[in-house]
Every structure is written in C-alpha cells, then in structure tokens.
Amino acid sequence: MIYFIRHGQTDYSERNTKIYQGFGVNLAKLSESGIAQVKEAAKDERLKGADIILSSPYTRAVQTASILSKELDIDIAIETDLHEWLENKNYIHENDEVTENSYLEYEKTHGKYPLGKEKLWEDAASIKKRVLKVLNKYCDYERVIVACHGVMIQATTGKEFPEYAEILEFDLEKNSLMNSPFEATETDLKNCILILRDITGKQDVNELAIRILNIIGAKGGDYSVNTIRAFAEAYLKESRKNIVSE
Description:
The protein has nine helices and five strands; from the N terminus they run βαβαβααβαβαααα. The chain is α/β, with parallel strands linked by helices. Residues about 180 have low confidence and may be disordered. GO terms for molecular function: phosphatase activity.
C-alpha cells in the first residue's frame, strides 16, 4: 500500500527575495504550522512500521519526510520524479504570471490538453506516468510513505486535492498495470498468468502476474513471452530463497 502525504504548510515569506526567486521558491521551508501538521500526521497508525519514506526533492517535501522519519524511525529515499506539476514540461521555469495562467488552464481542463492542442504545461496523464514509474520500483514493499505535492497526488489518485499533511491511500497493484507507463496490455497480463500457472501449478496468480509485469516495466524490459518467463522464474526463485533464509 502507498500512503501519499502532502507536505505541510510552507513559509513563503521570503518569496522573490535572496535565493527564493524563480525556481528557488521551491527551496522554501515549512512554516511552524506546517511542522505541527506533519508531526500530528505522524501519529496516524497507518504510517507506523512502513518500509520506507520516499520524498520529492523540493524542500517542503524533504522537510516533511525528515519529520516523519524522525517520528517514525523510517529511512528516507529522495526520488527526483516525485516533483510537483510542471508549468513547462521542458523543465524551463516560467514567470509567476505564466505559471498562474497555465495552472488555471490545467484546472479548467481537469489536467487534459484541449482536443487537438498540446500545451507546454504538464498534463495529468504525464504526471501519473512518471509517478507510477517511481512507485513500481518499490512494488515489493508492503507499505511505502510518499511525501510529495497536491497536484501530483490528485493526478495520480484521481481524488480531491489534499489538505496540508493529509494522508491518502493508494493501492499500487490495483492501479498501476492498466494505467502503466510501460504500456502493459491485457494480452501481456493473460500471458503472464498462463506462464505463472505453468511454473507454479496454481490457478490464482493474478496479483502475482501484475507484480511481475510491474517489475519488468520498472526495469525497462519488454513484454515478450520469453522476458515474462525469465522474470517470473527469477522472481519466484528469489522469493523461495528469502523464505528459506527467514
């Protein structure tokens, strides 16, 4: 299970001064209220015993992750593709006016480009694609906390825009395959199920098949029958080894 948590309230009092100009605004720290919000969120029972905390590279998310790490005694990993929505998908920072107008258009179209028109701003499908690519690397983890951003969470989960330090659950296995950035198809899933049934002798292998395809996609593999079989055999062999060692 994935537990998205939006960063706490941010202190933008130094915006457009010193280093906090242009893209530098993303270096802004949490406000005192934001720190308190995250500490309160850390008391949520769902977060206890998580395997890892992933964080966006922006300061407000990293500080959120660090507070959670201290409170919960869980390690942090920074994942650069967990950044917030981009006003320019070519990684060119736009001025405040362009950014505001682009976001208004994003909201108005629900994150979709107008028919027949491609915009410079990042659409919701692209956000979800890059986020799933990151999360699929952790598909073997039981519980993952992700400290990140509102638009990113909304685009990935399809839920309402979250409040500061709000926690939203996301089932990766149920959501990642059919919306996969690696374009796995129903045929690939059927092939994987047949292969796993052949290898294991079991019929109920659907969830395992999804996990195998996610691993292949995360490693940049193709979905040929030979590749699926090779990954499945390697995964099952490693799983048996871990069971024996325990």
